[in-house]
C-alpha cells in the first residue's frame, strides 16, 4: 500500500512541475517567435529568422503537451512533451556550438591577417568605434 501511495505522490509532483512549466514555455515560445519576426525584418536576419520562429513553435507545442499531460495524465502526451523539449535543446545546442566555431574561426582569421600585416588592429578598432 505504501508503494502505491508513494507512486501517486510522485506522479502528482511531476504533474505539478509540468503544470508550472506550461506558462513559462508559452512565454518563451512567444518571445522567440516575435524575435524571429523582428529578425526577418532586417537585411541579413531574414536568412536565419526561421530558426527562432521554429524554436518558438516547438516550445508552444511542448507547452500544449504539458497541459494535456497535467490534465489527463496521458503517457503519450508526456512522451511528446519530453520529445519536443529534447528537440528544442538539441537545436539550441547545435546553434551554440556552430556560433562558437564561427567566432573562433573569425578570431583566427583576424589574428592571422593582423600578424601578416594586412590589417592593423588599432585602426580596425578605431574605424569600428566611429
Q: What descriptive keywords fit this protein?
A:
single chain; mainly alpha; 86% helix; DUF5362 domain-containing protein; transmembrane
Descriptive account of the structure:
By secondary structure, this protein is an all-alpha fold. Helix content is 86%, strand content 0%. The protein has a domain at 2-91. The mean pLDDT is 89.
Strand content: under 5%
Number of strands: 0
Tally the helices.
Answer: 4
- Helix and strand content put the structural class at mainly alpha
Terminal CA distance: 74 Å
Low-confidence stretches: none
Report the helical percentage.
over 70%
Quick check: average pLDDT? 89
Rg over C-alpha atoms, rounded to the nearest angstrom: 23 Å
> Could you give the order of the helices and strands?
HHHH
User: Main β-sheet, in a few words?
Assistant: none
From the spread of the alpha carbons, the general shape counts as elongated
Per-chain topology:
Layout: H1 2-40, H2 50-72, H3 75-115, H4 121-129
Helix pairs in contact: 1-2, 2-3
Amino acid at each position: 500500500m505504501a508503494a502505491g501511495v508513494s507512486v501517486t505522490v510522485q506522479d502528482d509532483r511531476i504533474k505539478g512541475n509540468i503544470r508550472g512549466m506550461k506558462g513559462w514555455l508559452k512565454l518563451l515560445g512567444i518571445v522567440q517567435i516575435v524575435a524571429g519576426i523582428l529578425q526577418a525584418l532586417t537585411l541579413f536576419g531574414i536568412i536565419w529568422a526561421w530558426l527562432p520562429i521554429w524554436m518558438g513553435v516547438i516550445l508552444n507545442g511542448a507547452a500544449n503537451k504539458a497541459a494535456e499531460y497535467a490534465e489527463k495524465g496521458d503517457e503519450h502526451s508526456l512522451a511528446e512533451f519530453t520529445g519536443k523539449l529534447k528537440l528544442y535543446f538539441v537545436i539550441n545546442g547545435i546553434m551554440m556550438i556552430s556560433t562558437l566555431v564561427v567566432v573562433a574561426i573569425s578570431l583566427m582569421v583576424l589574428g592571422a591577417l593582423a600578424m601578416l600585416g594586412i590589417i592593423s588592429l588599432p585602426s580596425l578598432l578605431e574605424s569600428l568605434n566611429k
